[in-house]
Specification:
80% helix, 2 strands, 209 residues, 2% strand, two-stranded antiparallel ribbon, mainly alpha
């Protein structure tokens, strides 16, 4: 005997399949939306790092370099964007400043060093930034990492190019790192209050603020 076709049963099954598939589509859409927000914020921090680096330049005697406040945005890029996006934003923004400023030799060096700073700052913030106080401490740790990586990283790269005379840039890079730490601490609470950063970046990686 041929079994009768039951449209109601099939319709119920179809609705059930759609109901089960809906969360997956919503999750996929949410991930795409979050990645888009990350890209926009990364572009913003790259621009801020570039502008901060080029806006104020204090030439350092005995070297071809200069002191600038851009390191603060490098640290904060890692803090707000996380290790990977922070690396890209800080590396590209800082390297762009060297490119536009005519420091062509330093473009790849700056990308590597400043990208490493943001990566370390992002990892430290994610690992230690559990409470309000610890998040400030994590920013300080990111600033300390900036001092070490910038002074040490540029010295190693410049030593391969200039030899022992590369040591002349170490004190200036340390001063730059200290100023970057101080500025990042001042800017951190201000940026936390920006709704776009708070919603699209901070809420993605932690809880209450």
């Amino acid at each position: 005997m041929q079994r009768a076709f039951c449209p109601d049963s099939c319709s119920s099954q179809g609705r059930r399949e759609k109901w089960l598939a809906a969360p997956k589509k919503e999750k996929r859409f949410s991930e795409m939306n979050q990645n888009l927000k990350k890209m926009v914020m990364a572009a913003l921090f790259a621009a801020l790092a570039c502008v901060a680096t080029m806006s104020i330049r204090i030439p350092t005697p005995g070297t071809n370099g200069y002191i600038h406040p851009g390191d603060a945005m490098v640290v904060l890029a890692g803090v707000f964007l996380g290790p990977i996006w922070g690396l890209l934003a800080a590396g590209i923004g800082s390297a762009m400043a060297d490119l536009l400023g005519g420091y062509f030799l330093y473009v790849p060096i700056t990308f590597a060093v400043k990208g490493a700073v943001a990566f370390v700052a992002g990892v430290l913030y994610q690992k230690t930034g559990r409470t309000a106080k610890s998040r400030y401490f994590a920013v300080v740790l990111g600033g300390v990492g900036d001092i070490v990586l910038v002074a040490g990283g540029y010295f190693l790269c410049e030593y391969l190019i200039y030899g022992p005379s590369a040591a002349a840039s170490v004190p200036a890079n340390i001063i730059q790192g200290i100023s970057g730490l101080a500025i990042s601490l001042l800017l951190y609470p201000m940026l936390c209050k920006v709704p776009q950063i708070r919603q699209s970046v901070l809420a993605d990686s932690s809880g209450n603020f």
